[in-house]
UniProtKB/TrEMBL annotation:
Pathway info: Amino-acid biosynthesis; L-histidine biosynthesis; L-histidine from 5-phospho-alpha-D-ribose 1-diphosphate: step 6/9
Organism of this sequence: Paenibacillus glycanilyticus
Similarity field: Belongs to the imidazoleglycerol-phosphate dehydratase family.
Enzyme Commission (EC) number: 4.2.1.19
Lineage start: Bacteria, Bacillati, Bacillota, Bacilli, Bacillales
Location in or out of the cell: Cytoplasm
Record's keyword annotation contains Lyase: yes
Protein name: Imidazoleglycerol-phosphate dehydratase
Catalysed reaction equations from the record: D-erythro-1-(imidazol-4-yl)glycerol 3-phosphate = 3-(imidazol-4-yl)-2-oxopropyl phosphate + H2O
Keywords of this entry: Amino-acid biosynthesis, Cytoplasm, Histidine biosynthesis, Lyase
Listed Gene3D superfamilies: Imidazole glycerol phosphate dehydratase, domain 1
Keyword DNA damage attached: no
């Protein structure tokens, strides 16, 4: 893992999940994922590789019920580590808008690292599941990630025919948008806000 100041880790244990997660903003796409939800592993790998983040996740949950609690709680932990890693957000670009195609699918992710959590989601998938993974959990993950990282996050899937491709485009775009918005811009003095604080 990258030795960087913009790094945070968390351990979160409940009656439903047991999660250890480390996140480095200024990484190289180094990933180590161990969860009980293979499709989420795939999406997190895409997110980290396309955002050039270092990410470790060791998560166990009550998947005998379903994947909901595990997916939700990983979103919570990832959001909290992003927020902690960014600190006072001095010098960041703050905003990003990224389009990513995945074959026939096109997704757009718009980010404002604003300290004002908000989530808008426009996606209609052809299938309710990808393998054993419920597509409604994409919303759950992204909403909790936005809430806990205290970012404004808009996700739009413009079109697509293959549900896997559509969701993959979302996570690739999310990684690239978070990377761009959190990049240090040497022209920015302090925080990029007329309020003087984010």
């Amino acid at each position: 893992m990258t030795d960087t100041k913009r790094f945070a880790e968390i351990a979160r244990k409940t009656n439903e999940t047991d999660i250890k997660l480390g996140f480095a903003v200024d990484g190289s796409g180094e990933v180590k994922l161990e969860t009980d939800v293979p499709f989420l592993n795939h999406m997190l790998d895409l997110f980290a590789k396309h955002g050039q983040f270092d990410l470790t996740v060791d998560a166990r949950g009550d998947i005998d019920i379903d994947d909901h609690h595990t997916v939700e709680d990983i979103g919570i932990c990832l959001g909290q580590t992003l927020r902690e890693a960014l600190g006072d957000k001095r010098g960041i670009k703050r905003y990003a808008s990224v389009f990513v195609p995945m074959d026939e699918a096109l997704a757009q992710v718009i980010v404002d690292v604003s300290n004002r959590p908000h989530f808008e989601y426009r996606a209609e998938y052809p299938s309710l599941q990808v393998g054993s993974f419920s597509t409604e959990l994409v919303h759950e993950f992204l909403w909790k990630f936005a809430l806990e990282s205290r970012i404004t996050l808009h996700v739009i899937v413009h079109y697509g025919q293959n549900t896997h491709h559509m969701i993959e485009a979302v996570f690739k775009a999310l990684g690239r948008a978070i990377d761009e918005a959190t990049t240090i811009d040497p022209r920015v003095q302090g925080v990029p806000s007329t309020k003087g604080v984010l």
